[in-house]
Each structure stands twice: as structure tokens, then as C-alpha cells.
Request: fold
Amino acid sequence: MMMQIAWRNLFRRKRRTYLTLLSVIIGVAAAFAVIAAVNTTEKAIPIFLKEAFGKSDYNILGTEAYFSEDAYQAARQQLENATAVAVLKENTKFHLEQEGIAAIQKRVVLTGYSQLDTPVTDFKVIDGDLNAGGAVVTDQTARLMKLEVGQTLSFETDQGIRTVPVTAIVKYTLDLMGPRNWFMAKYHHWSVALPLTTLQEWFDKSGRIQGVLIKAAPGASLEELERQVDALTKQHEGAYMQPVSIYFHVSMKDSFFLALYLAGFLGIALSAFVIFNSLYVSVNERKKEFAALVTAGL
Reply:
């Protein structure tokens, strides 16, 4: 009987009913959104970590900021069934004549690679040639700065203004992350890849590198490669081997995911409360109406 009264009263108070339905929809949608967010995070973070840090199997690093390029040359000669790429990074600024751009928006990280077309760099070329000896930018950077293959980029260095042609445009990659627009350039630097020798010349770092990225060939033994890299680093003072290991585990006990699930539970609980409250108010109103009619003798 009570449920019949509540059901009928829902259609008498259409505005309240609409608001009730809206709150229920929002609560259920929030719960599903939380579940989808957790599932997406579980899948996206390992992909992000692999792309950002998992392109190489072993890295040769130095105990100082820079070490001799001899370690890279030895890796090329001694390592079997593996690709080795020497890396050097330097911070600088674009030299732009465009007005209205602050100095902070011109920040750029230049990364020099001994080889740009390798499984380690894994650049997906859209236009141009990775082996042409010029700058490599992502399609996002090229679009924002209105660049095409053949146009030039200028950079401010301690040796003066340096200019280099853009010889390749590649798909957006974490190795060459950049801002989405000029406003975001206030908070994130640009990234450009260059041949290693070019960067060494610009910043007076001839024969110096910051690391060697090593990736095993398909089907090659990682244990054997580790043995070779370990033996190689022991031959060069100031260099050491670092295996690349990526592990990511999602647990309900993690505070971030626990907070998301609690938010979803609260959404469902709120929806249930709204439904109960709406039915309760409807029944209570009808009881008062019946009491008034009885009192009036109707």
C-alpha cells in the first residue's frame, strides 16, 4: 500500500521526480566513471612507463655528470646482438624574433643521439629523414611553431646563436615531450633531438656524453648481454651499468585507488539516499493529506 502511494505521488510532483532522477543518474554515472578511471589507469601507466623508460634494456651511466665517449665506442665494437646509442642532453632557449613570447616560454631541452634511426630511439617518421643531420621535432611541436622540413631553428648557446635545419618530423613521443600550446610553454619546456656531434660542438662537450642506451636484438639473451655490458663498464673508469626494470602493480590498498573507489561508493550511496528520501517524503505527504481529509469529514 505504501509503495503504491509513493509511486503515484511521484507523478504528482513532477519537478521533484525529475530532480530525483537527475541525482540518481549523476550518482550512477560517477560510480561508473570511477571504475572506468581505475581500469584506464591500470592499463595506461604501464604503457607510459615502458615508453618513457623501457626502450633500452641496459644503460651505461657515469659517476660524474659527463664521462668519456670511449665507453660508447667500446659498446659498439664489443656488444653482440645489441644496439647502443650515446646520449647527451643540454638546456637552452629558442632564439625567436616573434614578439610577445616570454623567456620562460622559449626553454628547450636538446637531446643529442649518436644515431637517431634505431630501435632505441624508435622515432616514427611523418616527414623527412632521421639521418639527414638536422633537428628532429614532433608533429605537435611542428604544428605549434608552424615548422616544415627544410625550415630552420635557432638556439641560444654559450658559443652564440646556433641554427640548424629541421630534417625530420616524427609522431609525438615521450622522449620529445613538449607543450600543447604557447600558454602551456610557461610550465613545460620544448624538446628537440639533434645528432650527438652537433650538440657536442655547440656546447663544447667534444668526446663527452651522459649515457649509453643499450637494447638487445630480438631473440638475444639478456643474461649474456648483461654479462658483456658489466665487463665493458669495468674497463672504463667512472662508468657503471644500470639494468632497466619496470614493475607496476595496482592494489586496492593504494591510497589513490582507494580514494577513487570511495568516491564511487559515495555516489551510489547518495543515489540510494535520494531515492529513499523521495519515497519517504511522498508517503508522508499523502498521510498528511488523508489526515486532513478525515479531520474535515471527507
The chain has two domains: 2-50+251-295, 55-243. Residues 55-243 form one domain. The chain is about 45% helix and 25% strand.
